[in-house]
Amino acid sequence: MNGKDEDIPITKITDSDRVQQLNNVFKEEFGYSPAFIVKVPGRVNIIGEHIDYCGYPVLPMALEQAILVAVGLTEELELQLRNVNKTYCKYNTKLNTFEDITIQPDADGKPFWYNYVLCGVKGAMEFLKNKITNGLQIYIDGNIPPASGLSSSSALVSASFLSFLHAQNVSLSKTELAALCAESERYIGTQGGGMDQAIAFLAEKYCAQYITWNPLQATPIALPEDAVFVVAHSLAEANKAATNDFNIRVMECRLSAKILAACTGIACDNKIITLSQVQQTLDNTLEDMVRLVDEYLPKDIYTKDEICRILETSEEDLDHSILSPNTRHLKEFKLRQRALHVYEEATRVENFRKICSQKPDDILEVLGSLMSGSHESLRKLYECSHENLDLLVDTSKEVGVHARLTGAGWGGCVVALCPMEKVDMYVETLVNEFYVKHCNVDKFVID
């Protein structure tokens, strides 16, 4: 795929071994070969964490690891789901209307694996206004580690949405698909931005993408040729749909935006819900916004009652106009810390992009310092790191490599910027100092 806003290409998928295996298990299960196969990659975000839903640009790139979806068409309007991984149960459901598709968590509050498929299907059916001609038999194969911060869930939602549309002979541009898939994933309950879906559809080979919003655009960013980005798993899984941690941060950013708007004299209406909208309305620099946060959000903790007084609104209105269902019970919020992270992280993204184009002699050190700064902010201000992530970052630092958590956090992976000549030494250090010494792992598979 390339980053241009065009239809998704219909082409031969080159991952022949996985494709052949998927063809075989599909035929064994359903008795015929699939009509087509969809491939959607995972992603690693190099810098720009937790700011896409605040309206700020991010800098991810796609991974080789991907979701493959083999699809067969049926006259009966039914969805039959299977997974190559046999620990995931089979699932069948009728396709009457998108309103009838219910997405329920398991007894522990975690999403079933097929919930993400249902998000894509439900979103596609809503877009099609329930006008569908084919049911689907689907077999899924994914090699993106789940709950790792590498967008396995978003890739599955996107692959399912795209599969369903193609089965109904409907095609859309890449940016249209990315936007609709981002909306569809919110059926799972998380109020995320659109980064994962945008990079899934707009990625290009050998570069990252500088993704901006309103309108959605992706600009390729050439990374240093002597840089290797190493992704290392913390062995702590983090499913952002299983808790309200992610949504709490989203709501704290919204509340911060509302208060900054009110305190600076901007009309406090429903049009202002992101920190970037406040900046744009004031026509301020990011540095100006940091100063406004210090001025108007000085406290470490704000109670719900205080927020209602500042915004001159009722708790009931706050609950229904701003907060998500799984955050309405909260009585305290951290606003200053979240807003500072967003504005400072947005600054780091802009600096990273500029440095990539300027190519100073010490480019790897300068870019790496920005990544280290990002992790410190995520650890201290956004409070979404994990002791394993911090240990990986500290272990990296000891051998002169900069690293940061990537993805939502609370587990998952780090991404490290490593000089090419240091890669073997660095990977060996991670194996010995983190995986063996601290995690008692003695068998490794390195992709």
Structure notes:
This protein has 447 residues and is α+β, with helices and mostly antiparallel strands. The protein folds into 3 domains: 16-222, 2-Layer Sandwich (Ribosomal Protein S5, domain 2), CATH 3.30.230.10; 224-238 and 386-447, Alpha-Beta Plaits (2-Layer Sandwich); 243-383, de novo design (two linked rop proteins). It is 42% helix and 18% strand. It contains 14 helices and 12 strands. The strands form 4 sheets. It has a 5-stranded mixed β-sheet with strand order 1-2-5-3-4, with helices on both faces. Helix 2 crosses helix 4, helix 4 runs antiparallel to helix 5 and helix 11 packs antiparallel against helix 12 (363-380). The longest helix has 23 residues, at 336-358. The model has no long low-confidence stretch (mean pLDDT 93).
